[in-house]
Amino acid sequence: MTPSINSIDTSLRRGLIRHGGREWQAGLALVADSEPAQAMGRRDAGDRRWQPPIGTPAICKLRPAGDTSFLVKPLTVFLFTALAAFAQTPAGWQTMKDRKQLCQISVPAGWTADRSGALASADKSASVIFSGKPRSGSFAEVIAIAKRLFKPVKTIEESATRMWFVATPKIAGQTEWYLAVNTKPICEAEIAFKNPAFEATAKQIVGSLKSTK
User: Fold this and answer.
1) pTM value > 0.85
2) Which end of the chain is flanked by fewer CB atoms within 10 Å, N or C?
3) Where are the domains of the chain?
4) How far is residue 24's CA from residue 7's CA, in Å, rounded to a whole number?
5) Cα–Cα distance between 98 and 130 in angstroms, integer?
6) 91-211 falls under which CATH superfamily?
């Protein structure tokens, strides 16, 4: 049996409906038509759906409280899409390799490399140093050393595949990031920039670091 309109009205604000001794979680939507729910195929005892008047918040589907299974598919699609967009190299960028040809990273057009392999923007306001680590060292060992050297002040991401944190800046007023990816070999990079507006571009640079293998 579907909960009464009164019980729904009194529970909408907290998103839960108590009915038959159980709590149900309500999905909300705006009703865009006034046709009867049964005529539109939306009244189904198994789905426990209810059609309210046009223009009012409506219960689209009731589920036992705490059931979030309906979020899994859209959330998964969103995450895969976001990650793909994050890792995609923008048009016109150049891909650079470290001196030993172990790792690569992409930077905007106009960036140049010095003799040491360090990369810098045309106006010298941003720079990247990157390299591949010896195969003998584990990812955990590389990260432990990096934390001692760069003294993280904020961790952005820490997982079995990637470490990314804000490092203590060597120059006042400059943002410095450390990044390592657990590939073969392990690749790591230091990214520094002065202009806060450069952060979005810096994130794209971060997403492009990977092994050449």
Assistant:
1) no
2) N
3) 5-67, 91-211
4) 11
5) 7
6) Mog1/PsbP, alpha/beta/alpha sandwich (3.40.1000.10)
